Backbone:
């Protein structure tokens, strides 16, 4: 019997989006929507009014979850992800598995139910899967826009807060927790922020058994994509995607600790992650200046971009 009792408050209907008000927010209003309750709190940041959206999964008459189960998430990615791209239109009309998974990760997690996540691998997979699921939820809340990376959102990873492991977190926090738990920067290749120019979403959940092998495979496949790593011989530049560039210092430190190399470069990191053919290509960029690939921020929907660009991105 669940010891946690809910207060006698009216249960929100599955068709409500409720926007709560703070002292600096716009007036409270309720509009029709899906099975997600939103609390939108406006605040002032750097002199400009911004909205931070809290996304809470609430399923009417659903029991409170006490055990972690990633099968609903497996259904989501199996039915809606192909070659790293997402069929958001299908997901928007078949979202029950996503809502169920969001309800699960809202109720259980490494902090609230630590006995279910005893290994670092289990924690890393939990946070990575939660990150990816929350990104999809944010896309649906925004009505499947052309991009989730606009000036209006002041950063996807800070613009939304989700109930995960019984507390409010941003995508940035989930990313940090995944990295800390994995102690392996290759976990970044398992995190998808809904952009064509980022590591692709996989068509299966990340799971603890064989995690290191999975991350090795994801890294190799990602580095084969020119949207992730490219070599500009004409200008002698080694170019990496924004996700790698933003975490350059962490990648170098992780490499230094694992290999013992005193002053590694990004090329050293990439050579360790890459497959044989890509290593041969990377060796032609020795001494090249590091640069960042222009970010392709288009939504990673199946109708966007050339599907051939994302082939081979799914983990086995």
Residues:
């Amino acid at each position: 019997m669940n010891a946690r009792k809910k207060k006698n408050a009216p249960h929100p209907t599955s068709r409500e989006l409720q926007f709560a008000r703070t002292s600096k927010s716009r007036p409270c209003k309720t509009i029709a929507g899906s099975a997600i309750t939103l609390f939108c709190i406006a605040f002032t940041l750097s002199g400009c009014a911004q909205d931070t959206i809290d996304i809470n999964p609430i399923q009417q008459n659903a029991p409170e979850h006490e055990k972690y189960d990633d099968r609903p998430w497996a259904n989501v990615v199996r039915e809606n992800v192909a070659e790293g791209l997402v069929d958001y239109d299908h997901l928007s009309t078949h979202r029950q598995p996503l809502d169920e998974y969001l309800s699960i990760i809202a109720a259980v997690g490494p902090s609230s139910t630590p006995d279910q996540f005893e290994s670092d691998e289990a924690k890393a997979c939990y946070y990575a899967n939660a990150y990816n699921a929350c990104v999809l939820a944010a896309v649906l809340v925004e009505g499947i826009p052309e991009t989730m990376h606009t000036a209006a959102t002041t950063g996807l990873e800070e613009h939304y807060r989700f109930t995960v492991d019984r507390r409010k977190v941003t995508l940035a926090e989930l990313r940090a927790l995944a990295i800390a738990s994995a102690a392996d920067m290759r976990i970044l290749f398992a995190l998808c922020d809904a952009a064509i120019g980022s590591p692709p979403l996989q068509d299966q959940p990340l799971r603890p058994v064989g995690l290191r092998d999975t991350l090795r495979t994801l890294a190799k496949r990602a580095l084969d994509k020119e949207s992730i790593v490219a070599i500009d011989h004409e200008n002698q530049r080694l170019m990496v995607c924004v996700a790698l560039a933003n975490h350059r210092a962490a990648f170098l430190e992780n490499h230094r600790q694992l290999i013992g190399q005193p002053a590694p470069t990004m090329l050293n990191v990439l050579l360790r992650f890459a497959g044989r053919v890509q290593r041969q290509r990377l060796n032609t960029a020795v001494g090249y200046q590091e640069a960042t690939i222009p970010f392709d921020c288009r939504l990673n929907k199946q109708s966007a971009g050339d599907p051939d660009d994302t082939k081979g991105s799914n983990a086995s």
